[in-house]
Design brief:
Blueprint (H helix, E strand, L loop, with lengths): L5 H7 L3 E6 L4 H13 L6 E8 H8 L11 E6 L13 H11 L1 H9 L7 E5 L5 H7 L4 E5 L3 H15 L35 H7 L4 H4 L3 E4 L7 H10 L4 E3 L17 H7 L6 E5 L8 H14 L3 E4 L16 E4 L4 H5 L4 E6 L3 H10 L3 E3 L6 H11 L3 E3 L9 H11 L5 H21 L4 H14 L4
Parallel strand pairs: 1-2, 1-4, 2-3, 4-5, 5-6, 6-7, 8-9, 8-11, 9-10, 11-12, 12-13
Helix pairs in contact: 7-10, 12-16, 14-17
Family: Belongs to the UDP-glycosyltransferase family.
Keywords: Glycosyltransferase, Transferase
EC number: 2.4.1.-
């Protein structure tokens, strides 16, 4: 058999066109966009990201802007969903719209792409992608944007569902004993603020489409931080799995844009003295809880930067009578990387957790919803790089908040010192995974090699 010269082989391969379809929520949009940013500038790949008109406007107006190169483009479908800004008020309505109204306009857009897509990378929550790709004979890759630990927990739920063993009350049900250093996680930890699991039950019916249908699975995690859960997943999932995380905007950090005024405020503060506070962009906490947290922050005497959409809090001088500054939005990863930031009060969304890992910043955990409670267990118990704002039997008060914040930010406290040392070690592990030759870097290249070979 005649050998093929490398230049001839390269010539035989055409550019591979990837259509990326994110779930239209901030916690899912960000990792998909960051995955696409990692594909910027690659000669043999073009990417079309399909979003709603609302998300096209949101991404285009971001500061800093999306920073997409010529081989990555954004295309939009009409706004067939409730707004991103209000989806937390009625999540059931939003999810139902995603499941029933997106498929048709996305299919029309796919049909009009020139050149046609060779492969679809879709958020694992988009159940209708299976039929859409089957109709067009397109391979589909699933992107899982939560932790590997949560994926394994939901796999347990799916098995119980398939065996018709789901109880009405999960509070005393089977423990998910797969993390050696973490206290018992139960399915009740995934309670979504409702009295039952109707959303989860309906979701799980088709949830694991990617186990049998997907070409492969991409995960926004990395091998070194969730090895126990990944061992369990790989023992049951037969498809190729690529952990390429953390899918956070670390690739934007070398740039030096004109920085907002709050960076000047951070510059004026001593090293590791500021507590950064952000409780996510999805579900608002109650007004009474926010009042207690803000009063506690003000009473702690600790300088803080708080992200809040509440116009009553967003004043140029911050919270009256305190050392705090309140802003409606910030460049979170760049803030976490600022030398004056010494802690992060967080809801423990997976993206925020990964950004704190990357920055080497310890966390005060205040989970609100869904996967945030299991994530907080990783932070506090498995990795030992955080504390809880309150225990289960404690009421959230300003006094409790002030006490917890003061101790957490005490750089002379021995427990705090150990926690900060562990955070720095986790940062090193995270950076090693992303660097050339690291596990995430190699996994991404392995995925791309498999995809682009289909275009040769």
């Amino acid at each position: 058999m005649d050998s093929i010269h490398p230049t001839e082989a390269a010539a035989a391969c055409r550019t591979c066109h990837i259509a990326a379809i994110p779930y239209p929520g901030r916690g899912h949009m960000n990792p998909m966009m960051n995955l696409c940013r990692l594909l910027d500038g690659r000669d043999n790949i073009t990417v079309t990201v399909i979003v709603t008109d609302e998300w096209l406007n949101l991404l285009s107006s971001e500061t800093p802007p999306p920073h997409l190169k010529s081989n990555v483009q954004l295309r939009s479908i009409p706004n067939v969903l409730p707004s991103e800004r209000s989806r937390g008020d009625n999540y059931t309505e939003f999810m139902n719209a995603v499941f029933t109204k997106m498929s048709e306009p996305v299919g029309r857009l796919l049909d009009g792409l020139d050149p046609p897509a060779d492969v679809v990378v879709a958020d694992a929550l988009l159940l209708w992608v299976v039929d859409l790709c089957k109709q067009r004979n397109l391979p589909v890759v699933a992107l899982w944007t939560e932790s590997a630990s949560v994926l394994w927990a939901l796999n347990t739920f799916e098995r119980l569902h398939a065996a018709d063993q789901l109880p009405a009350d999960f509070s005393g049900h089977k423990a998910l004993a797969y993390l050696p250093n973490v206290s018992t996680t139960r399915l009740a930890n995934f309670q979504m603020g409702a009295t039952d699991f109707d959303i989860l039950r309906s979701f799980v019916r088709k949830y694991y489409w990617f186990r049998t249908t997907a070409h492969s699975l991409i995960m926004s995690s990395f091998d070194e931080i969730e090895s126990s859960a990944m061992d369990e997943i790989r023992s049951e999932f037969s498809l190729p799995i690529y952990q390429v995380g953390p899918l956070i905007p670390h690739m934007l950090l070398p740039a030096s844009p004109s920085l907002p005024d709050y960076f000047s405020w951070l510059d004026s503060r001593p090293k590791s003295s500021v507590l950064y506070v952000s409780l996510g962009s999805f579900l608002p906490i109650s007004a009474s809880q926010m009042d207690e947290i803000v009063a506690g922050l003000a009473g702690s005497g600790i300088p803080f930067l708080l992200v809040s959409r509440d116009s009553k809090l967003c004043r140029p001088d911050g919270v009256e009578g305190s050392a705090g500054l309140v802003v409606p939005w910030c460049d979170q990863l760049r803030v976490l990387r600022h030398p004056s930031v010494g802690g992060f009060l967080t809801h423990c969304g997976w993206n925020s957790t990964l950004e704190a890992l990357y920055a080497g910043v310890p966390m005060i955990a205040f989970p609100l919803f869904w996967d945030q409670e299991p994530n907080s267990k990783l932070v506090v118990e498995e990795w030992g790089i955080g504390r809880r704002l309150k225990d289960k039997d404690e009421n959230l008060t300003s006094e409790l908040t002030a006490s917890k914040v003061k101790r957490f930010m005490d750089l002379d406290d021995e427990e705090s010192k150990c926690m900060r040392d562990r955070s720095e070690k986790m940062k090193e592990i995270c950076w090693e995974a992303l660097n050339a030759g690291g596990s995430s870097s190699q996994n991404l290249q392995g995925f791309l090699d498999q995809i682009t070979n289909k275009c040769c």
